[in-house]
Amino acid sequence: MGRNLGLVLALALLCAAGVLTAGDRFADVDNVLTILRLAAVIGVVSVGMTFVITGGGIDLSVGAILALCSVWSTTLATQALANDVHWIVIVFTAVAVGAGCGLVNGVLIAYGKVVPFIATLAMLASARGLAEIISNRRTQIVQVPEFRDFFGADVLGVPVLVLLFLVVAALGWVLLNKTTFGRRTLAVGGNPEAARLAGIRVQRHTVMLYVLVGVCCGIAAVMLVSRTTTGSSTHGTLYELDAIAAVVIGGTLLSGGRGTIVGTVLGVLIFTTLSNVFTLNNLSISAQSVVKGLIIVVAVLLQQRLAERSRT
Predict the structure, then answer these.
(1) Whole-number pLDDT of residue 52
(2) How many whole angstroms separate alpha carbon 204 and alpha carbon 210?
(3) I need a surface site. Which of 109, 127, 176, 257 has the fewest CB within 10 A?
């Protein structure tokens, strides 16, 4: 609770800095909705990443999987089927591709004994390459009006994309904190051998964690495709770094065994607001990257300090 209060305070300070430096441009309702729309896509990916890191793993391929999902779900064949049947075909395709990629990652790591860093790095290269082959490095325009209309709408002034993010975050919180699956995730991340001796099927659970983050990538791909009305092999570039950074800032331990969905949501909002303040003040992307890097280093050092205190 105390850590979340610290994150809320940091977010409030960022908002104050935005108002002081950019004035009405930052406080404008449209700008606030823009921040929330941008946070929604990376937020869904980060919720999935929270489970993987809490379970003692890491996934460097989320950005590439998102790109592959966006391309595969917007091919001419998929869109033709969506026009003939229902736009939900696009959603199903993206989620199925994401789950398939997650399954491959999970099997390689859990049963193939490949280090998560290496397995997901290989998936990063393969998924991005496959996305380029399928799309022929061209941007694929979405030609399904019902799909664009549904995800481009809003409910009582709140964009559907933001509502979808809130739903995913709420489901993630329930899954992590109120279910056996969540308790097993904490046990596997904290001490895999102890979890195995306690009767948890660690390998199967590990596969499920990577499938879960793959599904989140598929959902995020649908959101990004609807926001940009395109599918592209360049979608999701460096999303893995943003997602890991948001999770770490939020308070999830990189070594596993402890995770927080609320902290992850706050971490996503902090990074998205920071980027917005930098953009409104015409500061370069390079400067943004430097500041983000410093924040990540400080967060990891803080985690290490807290971990040392807990051991003593």
Answers:
(1) 96
(2) 10
(3) 257
The pair of structure tokens assigned to 101 is: 């990629």
Contact by Cβ (8 Å): 299, 283: no
Reading the block at residue 210, the tokens are 């990577």
Whole-number Å distance between alpha carbons of 68 and 53: 22
Helix (H, G, I), strand (E, B) or coil at 141: strand
| Mean pLDDT in residue range 141-162 | 90
Residue 218 one-letter amino acid: G
User: Is the pLDDT at 2 greater than 60, yes or no?
Assistant: no
Helix 160-177 and helix 202-228, axial crossing angle in degrees, nearest 10: 170
- Is there a contact between 176 and 261 (Cβ–Cβ < 8 Å)? yes
The DSSP letter of residue 159 is E
| Entry pTM | 0.91
- Position 26 scores a pLDDT of 86
Task: Enumerate residues 6+ apart whose C-beta is below 8 A from 200.
Answer: 184, 187, 188
For 146-183, the DSSP string reads HHHHHHH-EETTEEHHHHHHHHHHHHHHHHHHSSHHHH
Is the pLDDT score of 66 beyond 90?
A: yes
* CB neighbours of residue 254 within 10 Å: 16
Nearest-angstrom CA–CA distance, 300 and 286: 21
Q: Which residue has the higher pLDDT, 207 or 156?
A: 207
